[in-house]
């Protein structure tokens, strides 16, 4: 199984990128080790917010946007925020696409770290609450504008034993590569038998922060490749380039190359902010 890799994460993300991997001749398999589950008292949590006090709202994931939009009170709140001219922001293009499909203008810079987005919005808007709609496992440093940031948990990330078993079975069948884009999934991998016993497994990690649980695994013998990608698209590009490099040594310029250049990255980010503010 030379051109096979397992994505350990959510089904939504896998479905979004499977065909792209296939177009490059790579089979992307799913190990659905985590399942997003809506918070039971979601409507009550949404009702606790005062739209007049909010300067900007951040959706931290595709699941947060999808589950939020499935709530009648969620849609009502978002409509009020739009009427008030509140900035609606998203981390990741998949998250932004859901909101755009519902008719909302979205600020979605090429970054996926919520704390970075908080810093940007805090500079743009000096007053008002910054509300983050996220999972129950999102960690935001308390020292970053703590007095202005309010987090509303929209869903829980539950570990799927069936997904873990599926991953173990794929590793037993000979798949040697796994890709991970969340710290929750990274923690789960530490307990997967096929990885802890080291069968020459290669784990691709999106950032060093996501890799922390795996770096702390005792007696780890697997190969850990940390890409430190700014976006999931950049991560996907880096993984594919890595897998194909042995067959094609001349690496083509792709998304990852653009964001390796700090000047281009800063320019794109500044243009994105200016464009949103003019709309």
Concise overview:
With 279 residues, the protein is an alpha/beta fold. The protein is 46% helix and 20% strand.
Total number of helical segments? 13
Distance between the termini: 49 Å
The first-level CATH class of the largest domain is given as Alpha Beta
Oligomeric state of the chains in view: single chain
Q: Report the helical percentage.
A: 40-55%
How many structurally independent domains?
Answer: 2
Largest sheet: 5 strands, parallel
* CATH architecture field of the largest domain: 3-Layer(aba) Sandwich
- H-E string: EHEEHEHHEHHEEHEHHEHEHHH
Radius of gyration: 19 Å
CATH topology title of the largest domain: Rossmann fold
Sheet with most strands: strand arrangement = 2-1-8-9-10
**Which parts are unreliable, with pLDDT below 50 for 5 consecutive residues or more?**
249-268
Residues in β-strands, percent: 15-25%
